[in-house]
Amino acid sequence: MRPNPKVADHAPGSEIRAAQEEFNRTYCTLLHLLEQAFNGSPRLLAVSVASMYQLKAQAQALMRTPDGDGATAYPTFEYVPPEERGWGAGDEPQRVDVLPHGPYLVRGGIPLRRKRKIVSAENSALTWQTGDALPTEPVYALCRCGHSRSKPFCDGTHALIGFDGTESADVRPYEELQHVHDGVGISAQRVGELCIHAAFCIGRTRPIAEMLAETGDSDVRSNIMGRIEHCPSGSYSYALRRGGETIEPGLPPAIAVLEEEDGLASALWVTGGVPVHRADGRPLETRNRVTLCRCGQSACKPLCDGTHRKIDFREEAPGPAGPRRRRVRPSDRTVNR
Asked: Fewer CB atoms < 10 Å away: N or C end of the chain?
């Protein structure tokens, strides 16, 4: 290996330097998680161990990369300030950080609860029922890959399965993406990309889009407002007139673990204007209602896109009981046959 390597040995943007910088960001993430774990949030030890696995893989990749004169590249273990780590940018007291290919790191003592969707006999969405608070530490990590045995909390499994948490959510503001549909005394705004298919906008017999034509009836208008306010992602919102101030339900800073009909595990519902920062450092627009993927399969990570419904995502009972399930490789299946 090249002796006493430094990031400055290579030109900005070069393959080796980029890999060394990525390693250093992961290294400093590990140090940060360990510091939090030893200062009041011991559950983060499992997340710290997952970062160690990520470090190992990045180090091995570097040491397979030729670096001239018969030597290979090597990690540099240089300190990266929080503002340069991507996910660590910003100083909000309460916030959610998306860790690179890892969990959601929640800081600021944000309350965590479960919410269950209540449906009618015809399976029409009616409302959300709030459950008991889940005990948390001052800083806690929520599973993003969908495979933790301690859902909704992260247990480090993302590193063992090689979770790809690449983010692709559109960072443009809601106002640029919305489609506006006017009724009488109401203007409905919608961003389809935010929809998680919780079905509050559909109603028992017809969707909101069809009901707008009858909003001269105040009962219909009130019905639409109530349905929009139950939309967890804020895909739908409304104002009293086109271009007017958007009216939002009064939601506290909190995170809810959503459960839909028949025990279907749904998104993480972040409310009350809690900031969410992507792993690449770009903040999502701060909104009153945001839904984050926790099945690991969304096409617009970190946001939920309703994929949990397609894959019938379920949440096993939290707790450490039972052995960890081993991943079965194709070769294992062949031998077993």
From this structure: C
